[in-house]
């Protein structure tokens, strides 16, 4: 088995494409178009849960023009990101048993493309279930089992072939030990790269270079704002909850 620092999902999906359509130059552009379309549909579906009217098409349009269009090389990052968004889309509809199992399957797909990102999605969803599931006890254990078991079974089945061929130690080193120990040594794999790329914005001089600030504006300043706004809403709802029940406790 060759050394690979990421999970084999990207190789498998491209191999599937070449197996079905043959080895042709148009297969890769086809994957690009299909992936962009899938992202647009998924983002629009998520936006429809939040906003109404014609504005529902705006998030997908901004994504395709200012983000996807700037990185048309379909690496494992795009596929794992799509799977992570699919987890969000599924759980936005509720916490029924089927939805939680589906979220687990999509989380496993994210792990099989980018194991580090997928692991963060797995931890985030597990913490989310712990935080919102009421009542606790057996019901919480059932919810976590519905999410964790599909993840473990899917990842184990997919990576089992590679473990069988090369052994557990090489797979464990390639996908777990190496990314955790050595990839952070590169600045591009740390939060420092965000500030480094942000500083480069002040070196644009020509009109064509200034035009590049448009997509950068939507990616760099707005993404942290979305995270901040998303964290603020649960805090605000929790504060309103305590304000409403406080008169009950003072009676």
Describe this structure in words.
With 251 residues, the chain is an all-alpha fold. Helices cover 75% and strands 0% of the residues. It contains twelve helices and no strands. Mean pLDDT is 82; it is low at 243-251.
Largest sheet: none
Report the structural category.
mainly alpha
- Distinct helical segment count: 12
Assembly of the depicted chains = single chain
Strand content: under 5%
Please give the alpha-carbon distance between the first and last residues. Answer: 69 Å
Instruction: From the alpha carbons, calculate the radius of gyration and give it in angstroms.
Output: 21 Å
Q: Which runs of at least 5 residues are low in confidence (pLDDT < 50)?
A: 243-251
State the total count of DSSP E strands. Answer: 0
Give the overall form: globular
Could you list some keywords that capture this structure?
0% strand, single chain, disordered C terminus, 251 residues, globular, mainly alpha
Summarize the structure.
This protein is mainly α and about 250 residues long. Helix content is about 75%, strand content about 0%.
List the helices and strands and how they pair.
Elements: H1 9-21, H2 27-48, H3 58-66, H4 76-92, H5 97-113, H6 115-132, H7 138-166, H8 168-181, H9 192-199, H10 207-211, H11 213-219, H12 222-250
Helix pairs in contact: 2-3, 2-4, 4-5, 5-6, 5-7, 6-7, 7-8
């Amino acid at each position: 088995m060759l050394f690979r620092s990421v999970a084999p999902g990207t190789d498998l999906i491209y191999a599937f494409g070449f197996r079905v359509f043959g080895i042709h130059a148009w297969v890769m552009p086809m994957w690009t178009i299909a992936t962009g379309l899938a992202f647009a549909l998924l983002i629009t579906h998520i936006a429809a849960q939040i906003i109404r009217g014609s504005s529902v098409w705006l998030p997908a349009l901004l994504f395709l023009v200012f983000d996807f269009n700037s990185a048309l090389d379909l690496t494992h990052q795009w596929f794992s990101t799509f799977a992570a968004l699919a987890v969000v889309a599924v759980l936005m509809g509720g916490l029924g048993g089927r939805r939680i199992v589906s979220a687990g399957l999509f989380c496993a797909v994210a792990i099989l493309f980018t194991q580090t990102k997928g692991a963060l999605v797995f931890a985030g969803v597990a913490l989310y279930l712990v935080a919102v599931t009421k009542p606790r006890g057996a019901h919480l254990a059932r919810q976590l089992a519905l999410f964790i078991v599909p993840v473990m079974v899917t990842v184990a089945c997919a990576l089992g072939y590679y473990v069988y061929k090369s052994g557990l130690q090489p797979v464990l080193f390639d996908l777990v030990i190496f990314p955790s120990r050595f990839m952070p040594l590169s600045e591009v794999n740390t939060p420092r790269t965000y500030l480094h790329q942000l500083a480069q914005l002040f070196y644009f001089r020509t009109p064509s270079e200034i035009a590049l600030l448009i997509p950068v504006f939507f990616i760099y300043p707005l993404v942290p704002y979305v995270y901040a706004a998303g964290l603020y809403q649960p805090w605000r709802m929790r504060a309103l909850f305590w304000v409403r029940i406080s008169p009950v406790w003072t009676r």
